Structure formats: C-alpha cells, structure tokens
C-alpha cells in the first residue's frame, strides 16, 4: 500500500474519526480472518479509540508547555497509552506505550496479520526514550527515522509530522523528555504470518468490489 493510504489512515485514526476492529484473541482471529470465510469479521469486535486523554503536566517551561499542547493536538496518547486503542486507557501508562498492537496487513486476507506496538514515549532508559537526545526525537518526528537509522512505518504519520516547524518539533521533544519515566516494555513487532500474543486493532480503508 502506498504512503498516501497510510497517511490518511493514521491521521484519521489518531484524530478519532474512524472506528477500528479489534481481534480479541489469536484463536478467534484465526477462525475469523480467513479469506474463504463467509463472514470475514467473525471473531472481531468494533471498538473506538480513546480521545481527549489528559496529559501529564511536567513543568512551567514555555517549550514544555507548547510541547504538551502539540502532543495533545496530534493525539499521540490515543495510540501510545496502554488500552487507549480499545477505549480503555490506563492512566498510569499515559504515553508509556501499548500492549495492544496495530495490524498493518489485512486480517481479512491473512490469518495472522503483521502488527506493530506503539512504543513508550516516556524517558525511561530501558523501555522508553531515556537514551534519546532531543535532536534524535526531532529527526524521528520529521523524517520517520529512528536513532539507529531505521525507517518507521507511516502508521505513525511522520509524513504529516514532517511539516512541523523545527521549533514545534523541539517543543514536543522537550515535553516528552520532561515526563516522569514509566517502565513499560511493549511487545516486539509481529511479522505477517506469525501469531500475535496480544489483541490487535486493525484500521483500514477498502473500496467496494
């Protein structure tokens, strides 16, 4: 799928404009996701991502306050807070990553879709951004490249975030690094064809036949 598809999907999802489908368990996903099934949605439950999650206040610094405003505006917590993808956010893990995965291949065609897990954005040194510099976070926002040079998928809509001004990107980085660290290791990426050990949310756009 092209970048335009993922950009539209990610922006709509983070803004809470579309509903998602959650695959509640591996077994149910297997019985419901086969392309030969009469009901490809069997075993899946409609959910709506949480919106308007309250973000931590972490100081009076102007850049930090602006960063908090922008993080709220971009809806980062709707994906990066555990449980938020299925409408049940855990306040103790706001911005600390999600154990619910986001499928990036079609679960109606693949028994086991590939999935990524929104990472921990708090400055925990082991599981979050604690080892990242402000400049590395800015690079991720504006180019989609991690501190190790890996290109991230446009599930995180970096192709849109690339339009952020340098000052706004710096403010977001300042805010994230000012947060209290929360230790929360999210699951590793699941490749297509590999059973996931956690529920997955699928958000997609399809045309009629």
Topology, please?
Blueprint: H1 3-14, E1 20-23, H2 26-32, E2 45-47, H3 62-74, H4 77-80, E3 101-103, E4 115-116, H5 134-143, H6 158-161, H7 166-178, E5 200-202
Parallel strand pairs: 3-5
Antiparallel strand pairs: 1-2, 1-5, 3-4
Helix pairs in contact: 3-7, 5-7
Task: Output the structural class.
Answer: alpha+beta
Output the helix-strand order: HEHEHHEEHHHE
Assembly of the depicted chains: single chain
Proportion in helices: 25-40%
Number of strands: 5
Please tell me what the overall shape is.
globular
How large is the share of residues in beta strands?
Answer: 5-15%
What's the number of helices?
7
List low-pLDDT spans. 4-8, 15-19, 24-36
Backbone CA Rg: 17 Å
Mean pLDDT: 83
Main β-sheet, in a few words?
A: 5 strands, mixed
> What is the topology, as strand order, of the major beta sheet?
2-1-5-3-4
